Amino acid sequence: MKQVSGGEKRASWRDSFWVNLAWTLIVPTVFLFTMEWIHRGTLLSDFWTTRFFSHFFGFFWGWVFLILLYVLVSQLTARHWVATLILGLLTNVSGVVTYYKLEMRGEPFLPWDFSQIGDLAGVAEHIQLQVQPSMIVVGVLLLVMILFAGFLRLPMGTSGRKWHWRLILSGGSFVGALAIVFGIWMQTAVCQFFGIYEDMWMQDRYYKNYGILTGFFTNLRVLDISAPDGYSQEAVDQIVQRTEQAQKADSEPFFANSYASSTEEVVQQPNIIFVMNESFWDVSRLEGVVFDRELTPNLKALAEQAAYGRCYSPSFGGGTCDVEFEALTGFSLEHLPAGSKPYQQYVTKPMFSTPQFLKAQGYDTIAIHGYYGKFWSRNTAYPNLGIDTFISAENFSNPELKRGFISDSQMTQRIIEEYENHEADSDAPFFVHAVTMQNHTTYDSNRYPEEELVKVLEDPGFSDNTVSQLQDFATGVYEADQALGELVDYFSDVDEPTIIVFWGDHYNPLGTGYEVFEKTGYIDQGDTTSPNLRQTDLLIWSNYYKEPIDLGTVAAYEISPVVMNLYGLETPTWYDFLIQELSVMRARTRGITVEPDGSFSEEMTQEQEQWYNDHWMLQYDYMFGEPYQEDYVTDEG
């Protein structure tokens, strides 16, 4: 009888069918949970009770998908270690990206993020990310699993007459994976059969409930923008007629005590300057925190002689272009896929906007940005929004830098310089849209010289890291306020009527987690979707009217209509519609309704739903439709 060598005995378990099967099931299972561990920071707490078992099929189909993917790669390459490596990277890198995006932006890893890789690379050097213990543990585990997988061999070998079985298995797994994507995740009815319900405007909650894989792939459904129910020329015309009739019946300005309500002959074509200041909000609102100086003396003084309130932002932790898109167009991101970037995906042709409308009235239009022109595709989006001249970081010569960015003071000086150049060459009115960068995330007190740094004198027990970041951020707020003061001082002495609109684009995380907001009571513990994290300061000042007006809270997409209404400027019917909407709701943004009295709700009344649907009907018509309304949106058609 032939004796089996020790080497052959050792080889027998390596190519055993049962060992191969077990490993094919173990790897996807392990990586499914390590991916979720990294994403969530923990698999304890409520994961098993209120997430995993309550939404089992969200995780189950993700697990099956990973098994099929593993089989596909292992059979194609005939190497377990290759399949282990690829699956480990795909899943755990997705977990890492989701974790950091939730920390920085409040939204998870989404399908359209791939189109923004170039923009992320542009600011990567300024972002400081802390590696989490879970990431280190998973990295070591991945290495160990790859080494072990290197000892395994497929039962049918890597070549020879059984190769066709590998081809059959790989083909079958590929078809199965496609069936899950297109037959389950891409089908709303099938998902609902398995208890998977869309929660697109609360993506962080959606991913926690159903897992990264189900969350990511079901989001592919919203890449296709569907027309609103009943979309037609007749439906659009009816909304327009109602808006125009309401405007004729009551043409009084919306805000009492506004310039438009106080005079019969208003200035028709004042200069208009938009300044969207990076991450600006008055951080001195935090209770229990004492700084070594008044942070916003100019803002507070100007609020006593201008329109002042809050801008309800669609963004948190980033996505500046989302806020300016809303402010420049009146279009709401609530109607678009969460995480999408309109400048990159939709503003690919001439589109209605405030500068487009003003340009039709004879304005010269300029944009100034303190960063590179290609960032968020502004270099291609701005011309489509009617901006004639775009000045970006490339067009500054030896500018003053703060924290590695063009300073807010330098931006103020550039606005003044462009105004003076314009006055020397043109009689046309002047519109400028300026976007600053100085106070861009992330934060560390080492970014300022000690003598310039705002100090925290008292705090409710912040960690050293949080104090450091808060001091950096507060210094940026202080210097932004100083730059605002410089701008207003200059235009106070200009004879030409000028309106300055100043607001912050969004909040950012500060310190460790949400410690700054939670320990000061600014938000409740763990309430990372609080409306308080969406309300930045908004100031609308002019050099020809000095009365205080309480704006309350208005959506970012209401900024342009509000400016025009306050000063009695000519408006398109689209902006008349948005002003009329203010009496019903001040905003519908990221699943939150801002009521006329300033309170918040996740629900909408029947009347609010009708306005919301009409808003989408008009917005869809111009962004994606015929458009039927093109003939009255701008004078140029």
From TrEMBL:
Signal sequence interval, chain numbering: none
Listed pathway(s): Cell wall biogenesis; lipoteichoic acid biosynthesis
Location of this chain's protein in the cell: Cell membrane
Pfam family, one: Sulfatase
Domain (Sulfatase N-terminal) ranges: 270-567
Identification of the protein by name: Sulfatase-like hydrolase/transferase
Highest taxon listed in the record's lineage: Bacteria
InterPro entries: Alkaline_phosphatase_core_sf, OpgB/LTA_synthase_biosynth, Sulfatase_N
Transmembrane segments: 21-40, 52-73, 80-100, 135-155, 167-186
Presence of the UniProt keyword Cell membrane in the record: yes
Keyword Transmembrane helix: yes
SUPFAM superfamilies linked: Alkaline phosphatase-like (SSF53649)
Keyword annotations from UniProtKB, A to Z: Cell membrane, Membrane, Transmembrane, Transmembrane helix
Topological category with respect to the lipid bilayer: Multi-pass membrane protein
